[in-house]
Amino acid sequence: MSSRRSRSRQSGVSTEITDAQITDLVSKLQQLIPELRARRSDKVSASKVLQETCNYIKNLHREVDDLSDRLSELLANTDSNSAQAAIIRSLLM
Amino acid sequence: MSSLQSNADSTNSEPLQRSNPKKRRKIGHTNSPTLVPWRSDTQQRIYSSKLAHALRHVLRRNHPPPPAKSNTGREVRETADRVLAATAKGRTRWSRAILASPLNRWKLRRMHKKVRKAATGLAKRSPETRRRLPVVQKKARVLGRLVPGCRKLSFPNLLEEATDYISALEMQVRAMTALTELLTGGTSHASA
């Protein structure tokens, strides 16, 4: 495959990004995603890596949202009890 | 690997790195040691303590019980994201994007969700400027929307931002889970 130009439009300067760099970045990304970690990198297409990355990020976002909701409930509820409030205070101070 | 432009200081002495204030990026071959090691325990502890500190303000602000619509969850989420971005020390684009527009993010997100559904039928670029397979390009676009501030990033930079963002998100989940368990454990102990 021939090397392709960078997508960013810099006046008068064209950055050449080699496929090797892309492949390297994609494989690094693949290592992070638990679903794809076990598979060999030459068997996973870039498209699949991107797809799983998007899914993984969406899952992480959802987890953080759920945790945020739980945390907000816990913070609101534990205000009433003094023993718990003491724990919170020791934690937050 | 690739060198990211840092606003505060450029610790990367990569020869291809531009030092001008414009946001130009070049792909270099050196590692980026300036990025935060999201997996280390130290980082998680730093994040947890900052988060706890920030949540205290959220707690105080909502101490008179909030009205019927409880959007504290969203406040917690925004606080957690901001603290995460702050912990990143602003060396990545996504962290700077989060810190730059905290108020608009959620509204923008909802607006763009509607816009996205209407825009899926739009034509892509003309064939002669096709730089990647259209399939990969489409997915890269989706990814660019997921990572904050990376909508118009070049493909390699986008991958790099996504890599860091995922590690940061994982740490965020770990820290918040630990915090939740701590609070939940406190509840059961008090009632015993």
UniProtKB/TrEMBL annotation, chain A:
Family annotation (Pfam families): bHLH_ILI (PF23174)
GO CC, alphabetical: proteasome complex
Gene3D superfamilies: Helix-loop-helix DNA-binding domain
Primary location recorded for the protein, binned into one broad class: nucleus
Database matches in PANTHER family: TRANSCRIPTION FACTOR PRE (PTHR46446), TRANSCRIPTION FACTOR PRE6 (PTHR46446:SF11)
Localization terms from the record: Nucleus
BHLH domain residues: 6-60
Protein's UniProt name: Proteasome subunit alpha type-4
Gene, per the UniProt record: PRE6_1
Automatic annotation (TrEMBL), chain B:
Range of residues in the leader sequence: none
Domain BHLH: start-end pairs: 120-169
Top-level division of the source organism's lineage: Eukaryota
Keyword Ion transport: no
Compartments in which it is found: Nucleus
Polar residues: compositionally biased ranges: 1-19, 29-41
Keywords: Nucleus, Transcription, Transcription regulation
A Pfam family of this chain: IBH1_N
CDD domains (UniProt xref): bHLH_AtIBH1_like (cd11444)
Keyword Transcription attached: yes
Annotated region described as Disordered, given as residue ranges: 1-41, 57-78
Protein name in UniProt: BHLH domain-containing protein
